Amino acid sequence: MDRHIAFDKLHNFRDLGGYTTFDGRRIRTARLYRTDSLGKLSESTPDWDHFLSLGIRTVIDLRHPWEVEGHGRIPSHLSFTYHNLSIEHRPYNQAALIHDVDPGPYLAERYMEVAEDGTKEIRRALELIAQAAESAEPLVFHCASGKDRTGQLAALVLDLLGVPTPTIIEDFTLTELAAPALLTDWRARNGGRAPTWRAFGRAPASAMRLFLSSLKEHYGSVDGYVTQALGLDAEALSEALRTHLLEPLPTALPPLAYRKATEADAHLLVRLRDSAALWQLARGIDQWKPGEKDETHFHRVMKEGEVWLAHAGDHLAGAWELWWDDPSAWGPRPPDAGYIHRLMTTPYTTPPGTGRRMLTEAESRIAATGRPYARLDCLASNPRLRAYYEAAGYTVVGEQSAKEDGLSSPYAVTLLEKRLT
Known about the structure:
The protein is α/β, with parallel strands linked by helices. It folds into 2 domains: 14-248, Protein tyrosine phosphatase superfamily (Protein-Tyrosine Phosphatase, Chain A, Alpha-Beta Complex); 256-419, Aminopeptidase. Helices cover 40% and strands 19% of the residues. The protein contains 15 helices and 14 strands. The strands form 3 sheets. A 7-stranded mixed β-sheet has the order 8-9-10-11-12-14-13, sandwiched between helices. α4 (119-134) packs parallel to α10 (234-245). The protein is globular and about 70 Å long.
């Protein structure tokens, strides 16, 4: 479920594998990684052993040479080659920005500067990535936080591989899940003080969306940028990357297994919900926000209702909440229904139809209690989600114009109901 690979010192280490492409294939796993600074690694530690176990043969460090000198680089090892390619030529201090600078437009402008200044280094990085792909050897690239320079190079590679723009934006925003730990590290290095810029460490979807729009405006497309600015054959580069890094989607996937969540699963559920929120925001769906639901929320639901997890083999496929009343949306009701909330699936790794199968499982749990109805609600401004539930047999029975959840202003929801047999 979680694209982040667990390390003690690294907080933003991710596998780019699993993303699907326009032509119905997906990126192979364990071949292409992105991360925050590998200068945090030390020899003879569990983190070092874990890193070496990944079989990485090429390390690309996108930081300035003075950053490498001041903060360290990955220890040398015979198993991989190290390349320092500083793609950013106009350094800037994000932490010292005034607090109200809008991160989206500001970061997008910096990314365009990098794209225009760092052509030599970006070209070389893409050549190294293509060589590693052709040799079937894992590669990792990184900067300091694994967000800006790393995110920009990742966006170029993902686009060349044929990954849709919303997914590229989503991949960029996943740094949000690592932002608290990255901020803690920054404070530790700076005497405990906080950055002036309140958006420090954040990765808003608007930054990557604006950057990609600017590339398109200036060059027509990422391919145009690669051809015109970098002097590479974009078509040949894209074909090489797709040939060696993409694979067909699996035709046989494991069945789903269900279990009731326990308090120990609360952290996992928060992570799943925040990931789903970032997926939505990358696609312009303004519904969930990361950080809105903490572990306390899921603990409370487990006491008052139920939370269920679905697994496909060893991987978490999704989760949902089951309430036994819902007065904020439905008002006072007799005990004749179960109320399904937060139906969440993990993108890119779940078997097809996982959401529908989880919905069916939730309905069977309601029916087992003798309650004849399954009920749920969705944002009135989300017709696509309403159509999804209608296709699953739910009927619109009303609208609540001012639902309150204690997190935001009242909002309108569509009420849907299904008679269970």
